[in-house]
């Protein structure tokens, strides 16, 4: 789904209040009855003001009228939730303008945004539940419970979990983006000026990069964690210049994408650990024709290092942040389901060697050539950006 912020500047303070009321009502109602929206919004203009706002919001697709319902009601759309999150980021001065989309994942949209000083950042919008839960019967049964399966709830869980891990990893000095803010199903983080390893065709010293990545896996394990999706898309490779004439540049891997992280104590920990290791081995062999002479690393050895030397266990961090076991389970089931269905559609990174070489660097172009690239940034904040002539200045006029 494409994020289109153009309607933002047309929303009045009342519209925002009503949109917020629909969001609040969604906590207990799949379809929020109109009288409840009126009650929560409590506009000065009364019911007629609410109805005016409802029409305005429905017209731009932020809420949708549910006609099949027994009663008259509305539900929030992905667009509506996007707007609410952006509105919060804008009012906290984390985001001022929204630029182009740099990535479209199965489970997220990645946008370049900027604050009012012009500093670029990344907005990650989680979009879980875009696929229907059909592949695994147990999941289907589990997710029959409406709340567990709701896209809004699952996407928010993914954002909360990812933000908590990014914070914990960053505090421990792991090479990850700096988390700046989280609202609803979105995260704002620093923009890493480095391409994913997927786009790197050769490196001067594959052995040392390989060693560094394996060391990263082991360091995570020591802190009680497995990344769970440690692949060439989720490792960005930054080039740093050095003063050393013999090695003029160093390559630093930076890890992203954390909603699927699991504990070293997880019942399938060994499988996840081995899969992460295998992913790197396979990529290095195919892309850089490098195969390590050292076998492993092995889960059983890594397991022995968990918490060693007094290091902080980070697998408990997310739970400590209020992410309950039930939330963890709901998210895990949804992510596993998503993974299973994308494997079915042949979207996993598991393509054959020939296919991979062909695709090679082309794939990025597909995403990069996205149509929103030409449009320039869409301003959502309430300041004035210098040199903003020609930009769509979008004003949030609710005084927040
Ligand atoms: P998904 O869950 O959809 O895989 P990711 O977090 O892996 O989402 O992001 C998708 C892509 O967006 C990455 O492969 C990377 O190219 C880009 N990306 C994500 N976060 C950043 C960031 N902080 N800085 C630069 N690029 C990023
Ligand atoms: Mg990813």
Automatic annotation (TrEMBL):
Residues 334-400 are annotated as: Disordered. GO terms for biological process: maturation of SSU-rRNA. It catalyses: L-threonyl-[protein] + ATP = O-phospho-L-threonyl-[protein] + ADP + H(+); L-seryl-[protein] + ATP = O-phospho-L-seryl-[protein] + ADP + H(+). The keyword Transferase applies. The keyword Kinase applies. GO terms for molecular function: ATP binding; metal ion binding; protein serine/threonine kinase activity. It comes from the Eukaryota. Residues 349-376 have a biased composition (Acidic residues). Its cofactor is Mg(2+). Keywords: ATP-binding, Kinase, Magnesium, Metal-binding, Nucleotide-binding, Serine/threonine-protein kinase, Transferase. Its EC number is 2.7.11.1. Residues 67-308 form the RIO kinase domain. InterPro entries: Kinase-like_dom_sf (IPR011009), Rio2 (IPR030484), RIO2_wHTH_N (IPR015285), RIO_dom (IPR018934), RIO_kinase (IPR000687), RIO_kinase_CS (IPR018935), WH-like_DNA-bd_sf (IPR036388), WH_DNA-bd_sf (IPR036390). GO terms for cellular component: cytosol; nucleus; preribosome, small subunit precursor. Residues 334-348 have a biased composition (Basic and acidic residues). Gene3D superfamilies: Phosphorylase Kinase, domain 1 (3.30.200.20), Transferase(Phosphotransferase) domain 1 (1.10.510.10), Winged helix-like DNA-binding domain superfamily/Winged helix DNA-binding domain (1.10.10.10). Belongs to the protein kinase superfamily. RIO-type Ser/Thr kinase family. This is Serine/threonine-protein kinase RIO2. It comes from Dichotomopilus funicola.
């Amino acid at each position: 789904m494409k994020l289109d912020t153009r309607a933002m500047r047309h929303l009045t303070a009342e519209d925002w209040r009503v949109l917020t009321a629909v969001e609040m009502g969604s906590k207990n109602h799949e379809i929020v009855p109109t009288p409840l929206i009126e009650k929560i919004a409590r506009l000065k203009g009364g019911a007629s003001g609410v109805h005016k706002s409802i029409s305005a919001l429905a017209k731009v697709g932020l809420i949708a009228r549910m006609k099949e319902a027994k009663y008259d009601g509305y539900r929030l759309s992905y667009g509506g939730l996007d707007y609410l999150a952006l509105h919060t980021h804008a009012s906290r001065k984390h985001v001022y303008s929204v630029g182009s989309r740099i990535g479209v994942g199965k489970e997220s949209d990645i946008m370049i945004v900027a604050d009012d000083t012009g500093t670029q950042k990344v907005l990650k919008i989680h979009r879980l539940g875009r696929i229907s839960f059909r592949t695994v019967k147990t999941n289907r049964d589990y997710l029959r419970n409406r709340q567990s399966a709701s896209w809004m709830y699952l996407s928010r869980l993914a954002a909360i979990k990812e933000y908590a891990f990014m914070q914990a990893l960053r505090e421990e000095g792991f090479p990850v983006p700096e988390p700046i803010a989280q609202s609803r199903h979105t995260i704002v983080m620093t923009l890493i000026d480095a391409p994913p390893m997927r786009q790197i065709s050769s490196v001067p010293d594959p052995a040392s990069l390989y060693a560094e990545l394996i060391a990263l896996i082991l360091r995570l394990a020591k802190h009680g964690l497995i990344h769970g999706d440690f692949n060439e898309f989720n490792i960005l490779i930054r080039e740093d210049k050095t003063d050393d004439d013999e090695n003029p540049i160093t390559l630093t891997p930076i890890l992203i994408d954390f909603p699927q992280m699991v504990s070293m104590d997880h019942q399938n920990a060994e499988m996840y650990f081995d899969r992460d290791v295998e992913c790197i081995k396979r990529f290095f062999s195919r892309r850089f024709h490098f195969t390590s002479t050292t076998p492993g690393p092995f889960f059983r050895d890594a397991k022995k290092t968990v918490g060693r030397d007094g290091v902080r266990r980070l697998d408990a961090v997310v739970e400590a942040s209020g992410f309950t076991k039930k939330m963890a389970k709901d998210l895990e089931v949804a992510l596993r389901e998503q993974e299973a269905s994308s494997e079915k559609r042949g979207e996993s990174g598991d393509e054959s060697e020939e296919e991979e070489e062909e695709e090679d660097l082309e794939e990025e172009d597909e995403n990069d050539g996205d149509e929103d690239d030409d449009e320039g940034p869409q301003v959502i904040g309430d300041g004035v950006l210098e040199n903003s002539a020609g930009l769509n200045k979008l004003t949030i006029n609710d005084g927040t």
